Amino acid sequence: MIDVKGLKKSFGEIDVLKGIDEHIEKGEKVVIIGPSGSGKSTFLRCLNLMEKPTAGEILFEGKDITKLHEKEIDRVRQRMGMVFQHFNLFPHLTIRKNITLAPVKLGLMTKEEADVKAEELLKRVGLPDKADEYPTRLSGGQKQRIAIARALAMNPEVILFDEPTSALDPEMVGEVLELMKQLADAGMTMVVVTHEMGFAREVASRVLFMADGYVMEQNTPKEFFENPQNPRLKEFLSKVLV
Amino acid sequence: MGFIDSFKQNFIEADRWKYLWDGLLTTLEITGAAVLLGLFLGFIIAIVRCTYLKTGKMKLANILCRIYLTVIRGTPVVVQLLIIYFVVFASVNISKTFVAIIAFGINSGAYVAEIVRGGIMSIDNGQIEAGRSLGLNYRQTMTYIIMPQALKTVLPALANECIVLLKETSVAGYIAIADLTKGGDIIRSQTFSPFLPLLSVAAIYLVMVMFLTFLVGKLERRLSANDRR
């Protein structure tokens, strides 16, 4: 579904991604781990062109999206959901409006259809009674579940998760991971940048280790955690798996 | 001469109160129209500046806007008024009130632009990213997500700009417009008693400013109440 070829990204003098080749299949759950500054978030943000790559190709369903015009990029983004570390809910809108804004304004659904969809999604994320609340009234975990519902409202082909639990209080991490597991079981294609090793082990179909702007190693979760090859990965795992 | 006599002389005789009344109407007319023009110009300039700062587009328009901001904020409003009346519209026979509206509107636009730009830039970039990641284009993201939030934060500052403008129009007399200030001054020149006419003018401004300030305070309280919902 997504093909990445020779992807490079620099911010000024700093080379963050130094050449990444990757292939993501439909239905795959790819989890990316690595030390901070390794480029994993930048890689994720390049996939929906939140960051413009400096070099390389990103093929989404066979089309190189790095060469597209602004309008076509918007259309690609409609089919790639994104969930952010800091939720980024719209504070001036009710939860219902947060979910329905994009599908309605983009002309994909009527207001009525979108409202029905929102009800359905709120039930799915376990917050059916919050439709008329404003985001400030929700806990961090609830906010992130709404952010996931907002992404789902667009019926995306794939959802990109950028450290979705890093800004949460520890007791709220579980509810968000649980919801992500449900999504995974339902067959959603997911690319997840996270520090949650348990989630990687349990849900990932493939785990990628990034460091210094490269994908250093990748494998099935079992092999990845039990039999790491790269010395950097061994060192990283020894620090995070205590 | 007692207060009663002085009052009669300054306001009752020869219907002199009309100078103040007509002047007040002129002041309100100029202020109201200039506020609208200032908001219109200010918003356009703020959007151009922010679009450039956030996307790098509209480079030329941004340069023009910066020149405008520098010149308008770097020169006194009286000088701008005189230039627009005696230089720009020198050869055109045009209503002085209209000239004043243009001058004060252009002047206010520069300050409004900076207020609104500050408001837009204060909104977290994550809000734009959230909008864009859903497939909304830049304009839709600005219209439905950024502007409503920015507007809420800058509303009190914009209201204060209106109050400032109301007082600034008192220099309209420089191009012989009979506004409120000029009205009081005309009475003074006729009766040779400066005390009552000028203090009345000051009192009228003060009452209007206090009333508007009261409204701004109410507005601020309502906005902050919304934050706690």
Automatic annotation (TrEMBL), chain A:
Molecular-function GO terms, alphabetical: ABC-type amino acid transporter activity; ATP binding; ATP hydrolysis activity
SMART domains hit by this protein: AAA
ATP-binding among keywords: yes
SUPFAM superfamilies found in the cross-reference section: P-loop containing nucleoside triphosphate hydrolases (SSF52540)
Keywords: Amino-acid transport, ATP-binding, Cell membrane, Membrane, Nucleotide-binding, Transport
Membrane topology: Peripheral membrane protein
Top-level taxonomic group: Bacteria
Predominant location: membrane
Record has Transport as a keyword: yes
Family: Belongs to the ABC transporter superfamily.
Name this polypeptide is given: Amino acid ABC transporter ATP-binding protein, PAAT family
Native species: Ruminococcus albus
TrEMBL record, chain B:
A cellular-component GO term for this protein: ATP-binding cassette (ABC) transporter complex
UniProt subcellular location: Cell membrane
Signal peptide: none
Protein's GO biological process: amino acid transport
Membrane topology: Multi-pass membrane protein
InterPro entries reported for this sequence: AA_ABC_transptr_permease_3TM (IPR010065), ArtM/GltK/GlnP/TcyL/YhdX-like (IPR043429), MetI-like (IPR000515), MetI-like_sf (IPR035906)
Domain ABC transmembrane type-1 residues, every copy: 24-216
Membrane-spanning intervals of the chain: 30-52, 64-88, 94-113, 195-216
PROSITE patterns for the chain: ABC_TM1 (PS50928)
MF terms (GO), sorted A to Z: transmembrane transporter activity
Keyword vocabulary terms for this entry: Amino-acid transport, Cell membrane, Membrane, Transmembrane, Transmembrane helix, Transport
Family to which the UniProt record says this protein belongs: Belongs to the binding-protein-dependent transport system permease family. HisMQ subfamily.
Protein name: Amino acid ABC transporter membrane protein, PAAT family
